[in-house]
Amino acid sequence: MIKNSFHSQDNKEIIPYQLYCPACDCSLEDHYTIKCPIHLHLVQSKYFTPHFLNRKWSGIWKYTHWLPIKKPGFGDSGPVTYQSEQLARELNLKRLYVSFNGYWPEQQAFVKSCTFKEYEALVTFQRLEDHNLKGIYLASAGNTARAFAQVAQGVNKRSILFVPETSLSNLWTIDQNNSNIVLVTLNSQSDYTDAIQLASHFSDIEGYVPEGGARNVARRDGMSTVMYDHVARFDRLPDHYFQGIGSGTGAIAAWEGAKRFITLGNYGNTLPQLHLGQNHPYDPIVHAWQQKIRNFDLEMLVENPREKIHSISATMLSNRTPPYSIPGGLFDALVETQGEMYSASNNEVNTAVKLFMETEEIDIVPEAGVALASLIQAIETHKIHNEDTILLNITGGGFTRLQEDYSIHPISPTFHYKNLEDIKEIKNLF
Ligand SMILES: *Cc1c(COP(=O)(O)O)cnc(C)c1O
Ligand SMILES: [Zn+2]
After folding, report:
1. Fewer CB atoms near the end CB (10 Å): N or C, the chain?
2. Residue minimizing CA distance to atom 3 of ligand 1
């Protein structure tokens, strides 16, 4: 018997899943569980139906049967996968598929926070709902916070966000009312990792849980929908998957998503090869993978990481503590898929963003430019063949397009964090 199955009231369907720790080969009950009590290995989710697709729901909810939730949640945003013509012709590729994650209503793409982080937020909030939790707290350099802010208004749950002051320009929603959002800023010398450290002080607040980062199965499987959508549309796995990465959580999710299809048996035995890019000069994962060892020591991989983080244009790719070494994490994903890492300069990123705009006629974020710049490098260095099936993850785009249809409302900071003495006061804001 599967413990987590139940009848949802809204949909009268049983949607079973199970959390699973590969290290002890055991199942775990889901109480918004983000860790095995014994092992470091990333907890994974298992699904019990081959029917991953249900077209009666929209956006990512089409894949509810392969998400760690009990019923579909709020909204209609999800990946849109299509075969590229113009860009493919420009690059001389026969089978280039774009996963567009952003706002592009002409292509049925309705991600109003304009990045795939919204899927993490949507699935995570539904998971909170399933477990009767009030809200979530998390640290972010911008896009994750924006996605959780945008969705918090829709689902009526609270988001407590810890964000470096320098990322404030990334924080907006299309709603005027931001009553479910508490925004705590950190000073301009701090970065994303400092924000993570601050967030770690709030684990004792009733009804609130830490978002969990890469450990949160809702976050990872929410991003697996990029792979699900490719298979739903083209009935096969791609040979290659391209993405710009900071933590690599999206790439882990693509790998895990692909493995679910291989387990089914009708999709062959070959995993898509991961081709992941970072923005030079902040490219620690590129250097870590060159050494082909699990160890990840940031100071050994890049000199003056904080300085370098401030000089990249794809600012979302600036994680200092990626889930690289952790069992079931990025190192394992790269090993299993015989992955490749690329480093793209700001110039290359710029060129890629422009090329996409000229060929596909929609604006994309620099992080997606890193993915395209990596694809261009892979072509030039013959890492792929022009007949191969390629899935290019455009992780964010359509911000310019969005502003034709909506007005953007900046989120005002609730509290500015100065030192540890402020923590008590911040707790009162939950
Ligand atoms: C967060 C983010 C990424 C990187 O995703 P990870 O897989 O978590 O490293 C890429 N593009 C955009 C637009 C993002 O917001
Ligand atoms: Zn375990």
Report:
1. N
2. 245
Residue 7 has pLDDT above 60, yes or no: no
- The pLDDT tens digits of the residues spanning 16-28 come to 899 999 999 999 9
Among candidate residues 157, 97, 149, the one with its CA nearest the CA of residue 125: 157
Give distance in angstroms: CA of 63 to centre of ligand 2: 27
Q: What is the pLDDT of residues 200-243, one digit of tens each?
A: 898 888 999 999 999 999 999 999 999 999 999 999 999 999 99
pLDDT of residue 12 exceeding 60, the answer is no
Look at residues 191, 61, 189 and name the one whose alpha carbon lies nearest to residue 126: 61
Q: What confidence tier does 194 reach under pLDDT thresholds 50, 70, 90?
A: confident
Instruction: State which ligand 1 atom lies nearest to the alpha carbon of 245.
Output: 9
Helix, strand, coil % (nearest 5) of the chain? 40, 20, 40
Tell me the two tokens of residue 352: 């890629």
Q: Does ligand 1 lie within 6 Å of residue 247's CB atom? A: yes
- Cβ of residue 329 lying under 6 Å from some atom of ligand 1: no
Please give the angle made by the CA atoms of 267, 215 and 235, to the nearest 5 degrees.
15
DSSP state of 103: E
Whole-prediction pTM value?
0.95
Q: Identity (one letter) of the amino acid at 416?
A: H
| Helix (H/G/I), strand (E/B), else coil: 209 | strand
